[in-house]
Amino acid sequence: MSAEEIRPLMSAPHNHRLTWNTPLSEEHAALLIAACGTATEARIADFGSGWGELLMRLVESAPGSTGDGVETDPDAVARGRELAAGRGLAERVRFHEVPAAEWTGDGYDLAVSIGSSHAWPGSTAEALRALRAAVKPGGRVLFGDGIWLREPTPAALDGIGAEPGDFGSLLELIRLAESVGLRALHVSVADEREWDVFESNGPIGRGQRWALENPGHPLYDEVIAEVDARRTGYYGGYRSLFSLAYLVLSA
């Protein structure tokens, strides 16, 4: 069986236990939204927006504001449009099925990218430069990217599917943002409970629940193997070593 057959059974856009496709609690999300300080009638862009939950909350926090969700996954875009319509935001939040690196909009008050630096073909620095270019002078950037909390082990690197130089420390990420002209206004890191909840409700938990409900399905063994591999990668690999940093930056 192919990965294309297993993916819809475990993927985030189809998983309604996930509010957002990142380790983030309600309290942490509210903290980030407040730190962005989005003004009335702001223009916001979210690059790699997924189904746009964070984008919609940012738009809702600022009367008269509008948002562009830039996302290549058609399933995520479909979910986002449905959510926006259900919350009366269809005219204020628009989704665009375009690669982030190809989006030409600029002059935004706030540009967001959470866990999507890979959308730019070069590096995290290239992603930060693109986000800085997308906002007007004095604008804000909300950037989320992976960091190592401690020196990664081979099991941690294998579990997250990373090479040794793919991610740095929190301070290295802050300094990298500074190198492209972005200064940190707020810095916070996803904690262990946020990660545990995310992994339990994400592909690991979704795949396990599907397997329990479909014991005789032809894909059962493949889904269980994928669940077990992801469990090994997280619990036996990058848990407590790798995290996601959230930076609110000033351009």
Write up what this structure looks like.
This protein has 251 residues and is an alpha/beta fold. It has a domain of 166 residues: Rossmann fold (3-Layer(aba) Sandwich), CATH 3.40.50.150. The chain has a seven-stranded mixed beta sheet with strand order 3-2-1-4-5-7-6, with helices on both faces. Strand 2, helix 4 and strand 3 form a beta-alpha-beta unit. Helix 6 packs across helix 10 and helix 9 packs antiparallel against helix 10. The mean pLDDT is 95.
The helix tally amounts to 10
- CATH domain fold name of the domain at 24-151 and 163-191 and 242-250: Rossmann fold
Fourth-level CATH superfamily of the domain at 24-151 and 163-191 and 242-250: Vaccinia Virus protein VP39
**How are strands sequenced across the largest beta sheet?**
3-2-1-4-5-7-6
Shape: globular
Describe the SSE topology.
Elements: H1 3-10, H2 26-36, E1 43-47, H3 53-61, E2 66-70, H4 74-86, E3 93-96, E4 108-114, H5 124-134, E5 135-148, H6 154-160, H7 170-179, E6 183-189, H8 192-201, H9 203-213, H10 220-238, E7 242-250
Parallel strand pairs: 1-2, 1-4, 2-3, 4-5
Antiparallel strand pairs: 5-7, 6-7
